Amino acid sequence: MATWILNGLVWNEATGETELKHIRIAEGIIAEIADASAGQPDTNGHETVDANGKLVSAGFIDMHVHLREPGFEHKEDIASGTRSAAAGGFTTIACMPNTRPVTDTAETVRFILDRTAETGIVNVLPYAAITKNELGRELTDFASLKEAGAIGFTDDGVGVQNAQMMKDAMNLAASMDMPVIAHCEDDSLVVGAAVTEGKFAAANGLKGIPNESEAIHVGRDILLAEATGVHYHVCHVSTEQSVRLIRHAKQFGIKVTAEVCPHHLILSDEDIPGMDANWKMNPPLRTPRDVQAVIEGLEDGTLDIIVTDHAPHSAEEKARGMMLAPFGITGFETAFPLLYTKFVRTGKWTLGFLLKRMTSDPARVFRLASGVLKVGAIADITIVDLEQEREVNPDSFISKGKNTPFGGWKLYGWPAATFVNGKLVWSE
Ligand SMILES: NC(=O)N[C@@H](CC(=O)O)C(=O)O
Ligand SMILES: [Zn+2]
Ligand SMILES: [Zn+2]
């Protein structure tokens, strides 16, 4: 039996227009994309889903997320995290290794893949740690981690402080054609700060996290990437200086790619309403000048992809206040509506630009088979309602994490249904 998605608006890259199509899915693959102008196809005996003129896109890909399992299931687990992802239109997500235990052995990588097979509803690609326990002291066993299914190495949550350790990691990763993904943060430049250096910190008498703490690692690592030839990917770029360094490195043909999060594209430190930990994440919200720089970086291709850095924490943990609460905000269920409303509905970006940065660009950067809507492709598909305005209500998030600064925002672009491997895994 096949499934037909009828009357879907499909973005056409070549013309820059959306066109009404019928899509037939068979055996998990897109078997046919037919012009709706040619009339209704024969759907006899097949399952049908009427998209009713809603956007139909390749499923979104999120290459930076925290699913918290194993070890922090009170924040999120693979079941809740993948459901939250599906509700955000994501069909493939790559999860960070700052779990408990840290994902630093083949056994834990396999655990994540097994749990995903048992309880997950979207594709989950695990990253493994660069160093044992993410302590920066000793490299993990890259070969066995790759063999177990890890797709790259990262100590996300902390920066690799020692340059030689990072260089060794890059050499090893390069020798097995694996990417190194870096959380860029120099600990000697950040001690006990919760927000960026800037107006909010100054107004509240707080110490701030300086931009250099991020950019100094970006600069160091670009030099190491050049020396080792590794594919180096920069996590959650938040500063004007990092954008500048990455732009320069790309001009030299160094194999560097980078990601940016919705919150760093939309919010600055000047938007923080008060000492509320829902506005606390790492890297922190930066100054308006940095926000402008990351937007320009994404627009000119310096920054390749959009990721959420979905980082759920419990209400209890976030209630500890700005100084003591953990860093991180949830991201899956607001990412597309935020970006669509702020950048596409306002005419700043085309719909195609946003879709590309969330589908085919992450697929290109990480060499994934998904991310395109075409005949013969895997049927990972998202249906999105571009017309209905709705308010962000954290209490109704599927994620266990309700920690978001976007509660109450009125947005367009809400996902309505998500297909993974041709199967409807979520609908509103
Ligand atoms: N981004 C965050 O603020 N927090 C992340 C860690 C990280 O991405 O560095 C987390 O694990 O909670
Ligand atoms: Zn990080
Ligand atoms: Zn992260």
TrEMBL record:
The yes or no answer to whether the keyword Metal-binding is present is: yes
Q: Which domain of life is it from?
A: Bacteria
The cellular component terms of Gene Ontology attached to this UniProt record, alphabetical and capped at eight, are: cytoplasm
Q: What class of enzyme is it?
A: hydrolase
- Sites binding substrate sit at H66, L67, R68, N98, N282, H313, F327, G328
Q: Which residues bind Zn(2+) 1?
A: H64, H66, D156, D309
Q: What is this protein called?
A: Dihydroorotase
Q: Which gene encodes it?
A: pyrC
